[in-house]
Amino acid sequence: MTYKAPLNDLRFALxxxxxxxxxLALPKSAGLDDETVNAILDEAAKFAETLLAETNRQGxxxxxxxxxxxxxCDPVIANAFNEFRDAGWVxxxxxxxxxxxxxxxxxxxxxxxxWCSANLAFSLLPMLTLGAxxxxxxxxxxxxxxxxxxxxxxxxxxxxxxxxxPQAGSDLAQVAAKAKPLGxxxxxxxxxxxxxxxxxxxxxxNIVHLVLAxxxxxxxGVKGIxxxxxxxxxxxxxxxxxxFNHAQAVSLEHKLGIHASPxxxxxxxxxxxxxxxxxxxxxxxxxxxxxxxxxxxxxxGHAVAERAYQxxxxxxxxxxxSRAIQSDSIAPVAIIEHPDVCRMLLQQKATLEAQRAVxxxxxxxxxxxxxxxxxxxxKQAQALLDFLIPIVKGWSTENGTTLTNLGxxxxxxxxxxxxxxxxxxxxxxxxxxxxxxxxxxxxLDFIGRKTAANGGAVAQYLLDEGRALAxxxxxxxxLVTQLNQALDxxxxxxxxxxxxxxxxxxxxxxxxxxxxxxxxxxxxxxxxMARAYLAAGQALENxxxxxxxxxxYRHKQHTVRAYFDLVLPQVLGLHQQVIRxxxxxxDYPAAALAL
Amino acid sequence: MTYKAPLNDLRFALxxxxxxxxxLALPKSAGLDDETVNAILDEAAKFAETLLAETNRQGxxxxxxxxxxxxxCDPVIANAFNEFRDAGWVxxxxxxxxxxxxxxxxxxxxxxxxWCSANLAFSLLPMLTLGAxxxxxxxxxxxxxxxxxxxxxxxxxxxxxxxxxPQAGSDLAQVAAKAKPLGxxxxxxxxxxxxxxxxxxxxxxNIVHLVLAxxxxxxxGVKGIxxxxxxxxxxxxxxxxxxFNHAQAVSLEHKLGIHASPxxxxxxxxxxxxxxxxxxxxxxxxxxxxxxxxxxxxxxGHAVAERAYQxxxxxxxxxxxSRAIQSDSIAPVAIIEHPDVCRMLLQQKATLEAQRAVxxxxxxxxxxxxxxxxxxxxKQAQALLDFLIPIVKGWSTENGTTLTNLGxxxxxxxxxxxxxxxxxxxxxxxxxxxxxxxxxxxxLDFIGRKTAANGGAVAQYLLDEGRALAxxxxxxxxLVTQLNQALDxxxxxxxxxxxxxxxxxxxxxxxxxxxxxxxxxxxxxxxxMARAYLAAGQALENxxxxxxxxxxYRHKQHTVRAYFDLVLPQVLGLHQQVIRxxxxxxDYPAAALAL
Lengths: 595, 595
Hints:
2 copies of one chain form a homodimer.
Chain A: H1 7-16, H2 20-24, H3 34-52, H4 56-61, E1 65-67, E2 70-72, H5 75-86, H6 105-118, H7 120-139, H8 142-153, E3 157-162, E4 178-181, E5 186-197, E6 206-214, E7 225-231, E8 233-235, E9 241-244, E10 247-252, E11 263-276, H9 282-318, E12 320-323, E13 332-334, H10 339-371, H11 375-410, H12 422-429, H13 439-447, H14 457-472, H15 478-502, H16 506-511, H17 513-541, H18 550-567, H19 570-586
Parallel strand pairs in A: 3-6
Antiparallel strand pairs in A: 1-2, 4-5, 5-11, 6-7, 7-11, 8-9, 10-11, 12-13
């Protein structure tokens, strides 16, 4: 269960799919060069592979517990966080104005893949902290920012997001927690929140909770929700910690996976906090971070599957079982020589490389949208990012379950035994398809705000990119036909979705919405894999460009072919599901689904 | 987490897909009529729904443990087994010559679906016992049969199958356990076996272990393996129990699921036993039961998914969240009204009904093959059964993971919490794709012995059935086009597989073998769903045939449409994977998968 950071593929993907040189030319990248990026990736890899990866199984075995009102984590987790903080990793992409390192998301995303592969449950602590940091950065008053943010970026304190209540899961309009003005600039927050990741723990001195709640006389629905920053311990004017603020975990959930991370039921009892952003604009404040958070969850789903793949690959080399069917020898062989086992590994590897390409493309769009000097370029990048987010989140995490299960299958009977470790990846990854908006919610977002609302313009832009790449591929390559067919089918699905919204029958599109999201994910994967094929071909023609060694580029071209043969064909069925689901689903007699 | 046996659909499927009247006309069904079958199903449903279903969560929470050398099960499991045995369920399909009830497999299979839905881990105890019973029935000497079998059929004792050793998982040629002749008709068996389901426990007075081992001077490979019956306690000539026979669990595995069932590392130390069948023919003796066992595992995968579906359906009615997107009202609705949630439920329901049709078709073929008076009919049924087995096993259990995960997804965040119960189905079902021959092994069997070895004759026979059904469907129905397209693609895949074996390049077929198995599974599901559509249509035209109520038949036709729209389209991609995988997989450079 060792982990080896896929540094070569990360480097290739950063240049090919995220166009790193352009990211390094952004104002926010001032002082950063390729060499520094490489050094950062190397250091991150070292940390992930050694200290962090080794905590994964122990953290699963000895999950977080609530003992006498305190959340207790395994010592290896606490120790890993100390080292992580001391090495300066928490604030890698946080603003330098508040003790962060200010790295572009593109580079930070590559590091986040490594943290998530090494220990998903652990990685949620810095990820949530940065989410809260970003919310404060965009919306809090300067006084509040000064009070909290630097200590969050350097990892002295952590941050949480308190949205969900039992009756308000996906539908935040139902939030009921209350906020009472105390007459000064503070409020007393009271309510219970559920599913709060790293909601309470002893790894840091203080925790800054961002809490959605309603002011007195707030209107019903989303417009009555405001956001508050509520510290676990009150922070005095001099920055010292004051009294306990009655923000605490009252129980922890028993979960299928990510055991090392406490998932808390949080209770706030007249807990003092500050308003963040305008009253009644709480949801908007949360939406600011949604792209970051959903991109992060997509990376999580991808990263756990990457580790599951590596684990299965190692076993497939080591395990000797059964003769090769197309051989005269009866000697048993390593199972990687059995075609179906090799197929499973390639399906994993090819999907993972496509996912890495897509999430880094999205991360690059985020950086350009945030800091490109030309507003029009920013705007275009923002539209691209908005479109890519539900794909990265939904597609990578649906695949997460498929791929980790393939990993387990390679182990045969040993895969079902917990000590083997394959089961943990299957368990851990499962949450990524659910939280931060279930994939069903992502799919709704994708058909509506991301496709119909812009008349399919961004979808068309990406399909045009695909056409241009197809035109550059060797004309006799089967990749051309496969890619063009996938682009045709995707275009048909886009038209179908647009037509439903135009006809005011969005339910028709909703019935096939997950299939549409998945179809576009696999198609976008093919577009980026075609880009990779061409980039690798260019390197193969020009020895000076072979910075990763000739073999890397040859292998990449083979992996692209594997993606087109083993993975991309799924779009054929998905396309049918997009256009056919409406009748079956919407005409289905309710009585046939009655209890 | 209640369970409601799908009695109406079972009855419909027994008549439509298993052609129950023909089964009841077999010699082995003497004395059995439709009314009795209905009464048996009703009683089985009652037991499954009440007593057994209620043990499922407790058995998961308090799994089997090894305490001071004894395997300890939760009392609810022990109690359930007592009731199950006392009600006479263990030997339902065991030969009446040995205290069994001798019911046809077709009827027993319907009951087994209910046991497996109610508590998969529990159901393995009678299932394994019957497997051992069958092996003895076919291969043991009369003396051995008289000694063991009646007490196995009535549940006083249980049985196990001891095949796997650490170095011999799928490849039984590597079995190393030793058998030493003791000079009388007994042998001393020594060795260690792993993954032995219900290998040891205190729920019965004695356990009959069937153990693969090698006689002295046996040749290497499979021809040196013999089968032995080794009781936990020696059985004296008068039937009384003698000394402990040094057959015991030395440890239990920690598994992802099926916690209530002990999965044992078994140690045999000079344990006395009888040879079963001829020396050196041990594997053949095991193969006798393989169709039963693999059919059983297919039913397991299906049954767990059925319960997960019911669980999700209930929650989708109960959980109110978010407004309907195609509505003027902002009031939140039950989530079943959201199209994507309804789509998930229909995908589950439609797949489940197709799977039920296919496993009952296979069970019927088994009965006909075993006891039809006309040898040619028997032979044809045996060929059909042999072909269907890897589909029932592989297709239903691959779907098992997909469907239980859909069930969990319906729950959103609650699905990830163990108390909800959705996670248990995901965990439990996972083993079914692995044991009794991984699905990769099933797929190899399917391309080779089941397709190529008979020149595709059985495949063609089934596709012809499909053509005939397509011709009977209303000609303006979209089902016709969809079914014919699926049949065309399946025929192409069969031809591809045959061509590879003819060209002596079976590796090419092996690379896409799982896709081929899945493609044929979904196609066969469509064939049987078309049959269901027609049968339902006939009932709708003729009130006297509406024994399940008019609504049932209307709903069935809707579910068939859902199968064709939401499930069947997967064959498009699978077909491409069948014919495209070879190049990508077999040409892939080994160095690119090096560690």
